[in-house]
Amino acid sequence: MSRTAAANHAAERIVVLRIPDWPVHAHLIERAATDGVSTDRAAADRAPSDGTAARQQRPAPIALIADHRVAACNEAARVEGVRIGLRLREAQSRCPSLATHPHDPAVDEHRFAPVLAALERLVPHLEPLRPGLCAMRARGPARYYGDEATAAGAILGLAERLGFHEATIGIADGRFAAEQAARAEPGAPGLENPRPGVRIARAGGSAAFLGPLPVDRAAGHDLAAVLHGLGIRTLGALAALPEAAIRERFGAEGVAAHRRATGLGAPHRPEILPRAPAREFASELAFEPPIDGSEQLAFACVSLAEEFIDGLADARLVSTALRIELTDDTDARYEHVWFHPRHFTAADAVNRIRWQADAMPRDVERGGAGITRVRLAPAHADRASAHEPGLWDSGPDERVHHHLSRAQGRLGHAAVGTMQLVGGRLLADRQRFVPWGTTAGTSRRGARRAAHARAPGPWPGAVPAPAPIRVFAKPLPVELLDGAGQRVRIDEDDLLAADPARFRPERDSSARAVRAWSLPWAVRERAWAGTPPRFRLQVQLESSEAWLLFHEADRWFAEGRYD
Q1: Are 15 and 152 in contact (CB under 8 A)?
Q2: β-strand partners of 541
Q3: What is the SS3 assignment for 292?
Q4: pTM over the 0.85 mark
Q5: Number of domains the chain contains
Q6: pLDDT at position 368, please?
């Protein structure tokens, strides 16, 4: 395409809103909402009410870690030299006070959804590019507010009311140029700054603004390396090349990078692809006067639960994860995500409301007369057709679930459950009680911890397969004696000081002969907490019984028995 044709085919004006360090913002919002059972609205409900929690946490250096590398960090961490992509140890050496947390992309998307909803009420037809970044056409807002600068100020004002005071807006020809403008520093060449946080490239001036930027901004890693080898290091140098030559040499990827460098949009794609408006399935109910008892609250929420489930059913959806928000008359909010092995019914939702109300802390100093608002929202919805019974149904499983759920409804959430095998070193630590009708984690953070606990390792000192058939809930004291009748000890080389000859469990009058035994192996953990080292040993008796023992504080205990 010639330069004259390119000028006549300039991309439309685009507005890009960028919230820097969005994963850190999302992590702080999620932590405020899920860490404690009680969370003040002013501290936790920033999406989309206010930003107190993040502003209070912002001065502390924070980094989110994925695959042992920094995936995101805040400005306080960058001041200390932390950068995205650094290995965890290197980041901690640069900033010893760095607070590190695992990065969860699902949290980024989930917490960005209320921000998008608030923006759509101000400017419809926007396109989310990624969590923390969205684009919209400039023409409509500019005509409504009078000009682009005033429209940008209105959007930025909304972002500030949501608590994101670091947000920036870029306006330019084409989405790529607008995104680069939003990322630019104040006073960058080719940009106007009508107010703090707003960068505008004048119409037709996007190519001049993009020219000095590095070519890596528009090209992928491999293509950028080739262009660097050819001496093309800036977008201006790339834009100066004929598009036909770029197409012949680099194909579609090169043409796309060339069009970004020249400030043009994609040839077969509109600049903005508005997302479909999200339908709100949440239901809420307010009470005046407040309700204090959990039974009264559950009874009052029967119609709310039925309305919520019916709304999903009308859309041919079911909820497999339910978010319940209880707000008391002191404006404290209690939020919890409940999971279901199949999908929630109205009765299931009412039970969860009662259990959550029972678990609320009773802080006498805080005061308060009870719950003033209940809100139900699907944390995860699925197509109803995926949960329809099969041709022959699954009657026995449904009856078991029905009766256990009824017993749980009468006795309480934690009264009926199953055991789950998790990660760990000692056998007793590998058993976890899971209430019936839930998963191991009732929040995103709990689910991450449960997934980590189920991981196969590394668990140094763990028992190799096969595991003992019987595991003692409390380790059983035993005696392991040598040929002289003395207790077998562990020497300084972590080996048995003598060969085992006799074995006797506590409260057993007769000792049994030992036929064979394994080498002892050490289990060292939590040394900072003063936990003494343990040494495990497998022994086989003359009667063909096999036992798993461990030695701690000069005594022997039995963890389990192989039958």
Answers
A1: yes
A2: 514
A3: coil
A4: no
A5: 4
A6: 59
